[in-house]
Amino acid sequence: MTTPKPAVPLTIAVHHATIGKDTQIRRALPHRQKRMIGAWCFLDHIGPAYFEKAHGLDIGPHPHIGLQTFTWMIKGELMHSDSLGYRQLIRPGQVNLMTAGRGISHTEVTPEEFSGETHATQLWIAQPESERHNPPRFEHYANLPHFEQDGLAFTLLVGEFLGHTSPVQVATPLIGIDITTNNQPFGKSTITLHPEYEYGILLLEGNAIIQGVQADPDQLLYFAPGSNTLEVELQVNARILLIGGVPFEAPIIIWWNLVARTSEEIKQALSDWNTHHTRFGSIPSYPGKRMEAPPLPVTLVASK
Ligand code: MN
What we know:
By secondary structure, the protein is mainly β. It contains 1 helix and 26 strands.
């Protein structure tokens, strides 16, 4: 029997950003204080927000390298189109996983006729050295393991938990779980952690107390490796996202939509995007303009 080592949270301020034309979102990762949690290197919390018809998200063609984009849809709809020719509508309870490898481009657009609430998270997963130069691919997961315990409903997005395994294909030890009260008035559970993982929790809706700390949508709770239990307590209609993983193998550079290990790789990818290199393909179905990269900073430094 191992002695319980409860997790001790560190709070990290979430910043506000704009994506697409004018959609306000919360960006929890990367942060100066904490760049990555395992291989999770980017976390945008989108909504909940009401979109009028023809006024939803509109993210034009842009490139990615060295990462997987992981979209978890809670409410609403979003159409993914990419340079491999995939067009995939994502609906609540579903995941889109795009693996960029050496290069891909895509668009993400709310369908023209859609109006209503949209609530989603988009995360990026840094690819390990063994995978990051591979060809791109895309997968849609219509169904994920869903189970209940202690008044809480769990959707297993990535990894293994309580005897369930997510079908989502990732290349490093990771976990991602959506936890709600599922219309129950209250739910409380002690979650078993992997001591070798670091973890993060973001409040997505409602009220929750995590390890005795009141959760806040503007704060990411971070837990360093070495703990084996975590107390989560959710009130009616609350929802949290729990992510975790083994600390990543190497420092990375994240610049714009690109993840790499050296500034030369970033500069090459930028030049290839600007010169319409075949590495990033095209998305002929998108009616608007490609996204333009912001100016490169003088120095790009790798960090974890
Ligand atoms: Mn993207």
